[in-house]
Amino acid sequence: MSEVLTESINDKRAWTAKTVDPQEAWTTVLSKACLEELVRTAQGVGGPTTEIRVRREDLSLSRFALAPVTEAIESGRGFAVIDRLPLENRSAEEVVRIYWMIGQILGDPFGQDIKGTLLYDVTDTGQNVAEGARFSVTNAESTFHTDGAFNPHVPDIVGLLCLQAAKSGGESQLVSAVAVHNALLENHQEVLERLYDVFCFDRRGQFREGEDPFTETPIYRWDGSELIHRYMNLYVEVGHQLAERPLTADREAALELMERLVQREDLRVEFSLERGQMLFTNNRWILHNRTAFEDHPEPEKRRHYVRLWLSRK
């Protein structure tokens, strides 16, 4: 078991539904000049989108405009919404190129699956989580989690661009794992210590020949300066089945309490992204959930997000 953090964290990271700053403060609006810089740069670069590499200094207006986003992600509430990319008069391909460049201002993109996919389409493909699919390709509620929890290298930042919203549902819900840690420390310290133990996470088929189908990692880890969290309840349950290591009673109790806490309404915020808006979250300590949704019958109107995984600059 790694070192357990035994003191509460009482800064902006430990927000609750009552203490988080107002919703209007979450959104950074891209100015006309900033959009023009991004569009001009996107149009001036050829080749596939994921081969575009931009330097932060080449996007000075955009970097300045996104400074509040970087600050919020790194040392504030841990998430920010960017409003918005011009879907009305741009092709989806061009909008995604701009989003790709914005991502590179915030971090370095890396692969989201065994194939190395850098821009990942989040849309319902009709697959089933019970049959091994990742939640991102279904319309099921994802439950609270951190992205890539089963990967050796997890993203520091997760980006989502909304190209098309669902007919109904599909809201984003966020919880601070720091606030959850504080609650556990205050009322259930012995349970909290179990969450620093190593658990097995199902890798959802994202492994190569000769590798284990599960990853071993703690749910909470304190590195001496930062509290880091990995979580997806279902993946832990399945991971221990794959490893043939049944969860002990105390670990089961710890997971059950964790799941109850992350679902508390007083600890979460909830909102919907609109077309062209982007959400970026600190994946080291922000848990997110997408509620179940109903899609439009027309294929061109079906819910479609594009996801980015980023490492810190």
Tell me briefly what this model is.
The protein contains eight helices and 16 strands. By secondary structure, it is an alpha+beta fold. Helix 1 (32-43) packs across helix 4 (92-106).
Write up this protein:
With about 325 residues, this protein is α+β, with helices and mostly antiparallel strands. About 25% of the residues lie in helices and about 20% in strands. It is built from eight helices and 16 strands. The strands form five sheets. Strands 1, 2, 3, 4, 5, 13 and 16 form a seven-stranded mixed beta sheet that branches. A three-stranded antiparallel beta sheet has the order 12-7-14. A hairpin with a 4-residue loop joins strand 10 and strand 11 (about 225-230). Helix 1 crosses helix 4 (about 90-105). The protein is globular, with a radius of gyration of 19 Å.
Entry keywords:
313 residues, 7-stranded mixed β-sheet, 22% strand, globular
- Helix-strand string: EHHHEHEEEEEHHEEEEHHEEEEE
- The percent of residues in helical segments reads 25-40%
Sheet-strand content, in percent, reads 15-25%
The SS-based structural class is alpha+beta
* Largest β sheet strand count, sense and barrel closure: 7 strands, mixed
